[in-house]
Each structure stands twice: as structure tokens, then as C-alpha cells.
User: Fold this.
Amino acid sequence: MRDFRLDDREMRDAITVARRMGIISRSAQRNRRPTLDELDRLLAHFIDRRQRTPQAMPMHKVIAFALFSTRRQAEITRLTWDDFQKEHKRILVRDMKHPGEKLGNDTWVDLPEEAIRITDSMRNSKAEIFPYSPDAITANFTRACKLLGIEDLHFHDLRHEGISRLFEMGWNIPHVAAVSGHRSWVSRLCCTNR
Assistant:
């Protein structure tokens, strides 16, 4: 990047040593799935909060949408009304996360009926369907988990839960991939082992 000449052999040796020392490694795969009780408590908490404070973010809808659509929180906040095709039961996810493509990875994904109903329930007053920041979603979710005594649950675990549920409902790999946006068989198959 800065025109420095690097010895490939030295770089490979450094990576080998760093792995052996435990400085670098592959990220650990999470298997955490929320229980029905945890989901009930989270949704009840956020519904109660919304009734007491109507201007609060409708986190109950964000959580339910994440489960049914299998979308990541940053993807949820980028979804727009213009990219929603209710008649075709799909939505364009702009800049979908992909290991090799950071920007311009726009992907059409199918939306299950439940995700469409949640989308329809949102107010169409801004360009985005869920006009919130990913940081605000994370903060709300993390605070609620702490308050409710729910340990080691991350918002991203909802995506894995949603994908697992589709398989448990008997959906096949291509059908699940049309919702989740997975493109490689390896990444699709890792979800079936959950």
C-alpha cells in the first residue's frame, strides 16, 4: 500500500509464529441461540417500553424483523422503501456483507410473510424502513439483555436463529439462501449444523 517491499517468506513465517503463540487465530464460531423465554422477555420489555414512551425505537419490530428476515443490524438500517418489492416478496439489500466485497454488493433477498407484515407496520415517513443507527440498536439490545439477566446474547445471534428456524421448518438450502443471501455452499452448510 505504501510501496514498502515485504518479503513474502518473512510474512508467512511471522503469521505461523503468531498463530502458534495464540496472538492470531480464526474467530470462534458462536452457537448461541436465544431461548423462547428470552425472546418473550425481550419482546415484552420493548413492547412495554414503546407503550410507555411512544417515541422510543420500536425494538420489538426490529428484533422480529431480524429473526424473520435473517438480516444483520447494519443491513436492516439501510433498507429503503424504494428497494422493497412487496408484490415480489423481496427487498434489495445494499452493500450486503461479503468477505471479498465491501461496497457495491447489492443483493435481492426474499422476505418471508412475517417480515413483510412487519415492514408494512412501519411508518413510511423517511427513505429508510428502519431509520435508526446500528449503534442505537446494539445499545438498546445490550441494555435490555443486561436488565433482563440474559447472558451472552448478541443481536447478530438473531440472524443465526432465523436461519436455523427456516431449516427447522423444512426449508431446503437454496430456499434459505434466497432469504439469508448466502452465496457459497460452505457458508450455507455451516448454518445447517446448528
